[in-house]
Structure formats: C-alpha cells, structure tokens
Specification:
Layout: H1 2-29, H2 33-59, H3 63-92, H4 106-113
C-alpha cells in the first residue's frame, strides 16, 4: 500500500510541476496582461493544487495534511479573486486587450468591421 501511495504522490508532484512550468512559460510568452493573468491564475492554481495534493498523499493523515488542506483552500479562493481584481484594475487603468494577436483594441476592431467584435 505504501508503494501505491508513493506512486500517486510522485505522479501528483510531477504533474503539478509540469502545470506550474506551463504557467510560467505562459506568463512569458502570452501577448498581453489579460492572457498572462490567465496563465498565472489558472495553470499555477492547478499546478500548486496538484503539488500540495502530492504532498498530502505522501504525508498521510497528520497535522501537516490538515495545514496543507488549509493552504489549498486559501489558494483556490485567493488566486481567482486576485486575478479578477488585477483584471478590473487593468481595465480601469485603460489597458486594452489584444485582439487576434494584433495590438488593436476591441473597440477599434468593431468599428472597422461594422459590427461587434467576436472575441
């Protein structure tokens, strides 16, 4: 049974590390602040959740596991809330999202095409 727990623990740790790495690459490679927030808010939350789940499996049911559960709950509430607050602050600060990989804001795109933007 211990071998099965170790395999599940390492699988979660490796998968979480991969998701965290993909999130880090997304923060570097994505075109604007809104897409970067998506990479940070979604993938890193999943990555940290899997890493902490792997640590919980590895540790068994102890006081450490209870503390890790509290950290997971905090991350799952704080990360989306922080991402939303940053997006609202960016919009209120005048940052326009990139549309179709170009530096044209959504309002200019809808004026050129004569209709609403489909993004």
């Amino acid at each position: 049974m211990a071998l099965l727990a170790d395999i599940a623990s390492w699988a979660c740790l490796i998968a979480g590390s991969l998701f965290a790495f993909i999130g880090a690459v997304g923060i570097i490679r994505l075109p604007d602040v809104f897409a970067r927030m998506h990479g940070a808010g979604i993938l890193d939350t999943l990555g940290m959740g899997l890493i902490l789940a792997g640590l919980m499996i590895h540790e068994g049911f102890t006081l450490v596991t209870v503390k890790l559960v509290l950290i997971v709950v905090f991350i799952f509430f704080a990360s989306p809330t922080t991402t939303h607050a940053l997006a609202r602050a960016a919009l209120n600060g005048g940052v326009e999202p990139v549309v179709d990989g170009k530096n044209a804001p959504a309002a200019e795109t809808s004026e050129r095409t004569g209709g609403p933007s489909k993004t």
